[in-house]
Write a structure and sequence with these properties.
The chain is of the alpha+beta class. Helices cover 44% and strands 13% of the residues. It contains 7 helices and 4 strands; from the N terminus they run ααααββαααββ. A 4-stranded antiparallel β-sheet has the order 1-2-4-3. The longest helix has 27 residues. The radius of gyration is 19 Å and the shape is globular. InterPro entries: Bet3 (IPR016721), NO_sig/Golgi_transp_ligand-bd (IPR024096), TRAPP_component (IPR007194). Belongs to the TRAPP small subunits family. BET3 subfamily.
Length: 223
């Protein structure tokens, strides 16, 4: 994904131009509430087994990422990156800008240069959301607006089987999207949340670890 060597400023400019000229805008509140309703439905269907919900959100994101990369490549007109550092710059300055209109920061690199951390300045998926500590914390929130402010439109009760604030990675779909997108450009990576302000952390952070560079597969019959 490279047009040659680019500075960080040039990469940011590409992201800004794509956002301004090539992206269909949608109402941010509608986007947030729609995602919240999806998470809410998954929680109900899985009886508030948050580990299971995390897996489903990740898989959903992964499948989206496998397809989203085509739109990304078409609009950005970028060639393959030459190294992981350049990849990280493209993800934060163009990918996040294009699809969420935010520009995260890279706040950590491992000594071997194979792991980096993305810190989100804000999370559009989590606007208006507050995760409960326990069942008692949500009793009495029966009207749509109050419940939506908690987590989508989930109707928590005493059958609540887990602790959302400790167990749920509400925006885990983002990790799946990054995982799927990178896999499509032959980068096998682990992607996971390490912090989330919804869980009481000071920042919202995602780590990306490169496992291996995959070989390009040649279709049967081609040489």
């Amino acid at each position: 994904m490279s047009k040659g060597v680019r500075s960080g400023k040039q990469v940011r400019q590409i992201g800004e131009e794509i956002w301004k000229n090539d992206v269909i805008k949608i109402n941010s509140e509608l986007f947030t509430l729609t995602y919240g309703s999806i998470v809410a439905q998954l929680c109900r269907e899985n009886e508030y087994d948050y580990a299971k919900v995390n897996e489903i959100l990740y898989e959903m994101g992964y499948n989206i990422g496998l397809r989203l990369i085509e739109e990304f490549m078409c609009k950005s007109k970028l060639e393959r990156c030459t190294n992981l550092k350049e990849t990280s710059e493209i993800i934060t300055n163009i990918g996040f800008k294009m699809f969420l209109n935010i520009v995260p920061q890279i706040t950590y690199w491992s000594s071997d240069g194979r792991t980096f951390q993305i810190t989100l300045p804000e999370n559009p998926l989590a606007d208006f959301v507050e995760l409960p500590d326990d069942v008692d914390d949500v009793e009495g929130f029966d009207d749509v607006e109050s419940v939506a402010n908690r987590i989508g439109d989930i109707d928590f009760n005493k059958k609540h089987r887990g602790n959302a604030r400790k167990e749920l990675w509400y925006s885990n779909i983002l990790c799946g999207v990054i995982k799927g997108s990178l896999e499509m450009v032959q980068l096998d990576c682990q992607v996971w949340f390490v912090n989330d302000t919804l869980r009481g952390d000071e920042t919202t952070d995602i780590k990306v670890k490169l496992n291996q560079v995959l070989k390009d597969e040649i279709p049967d019959g081609d040489e």
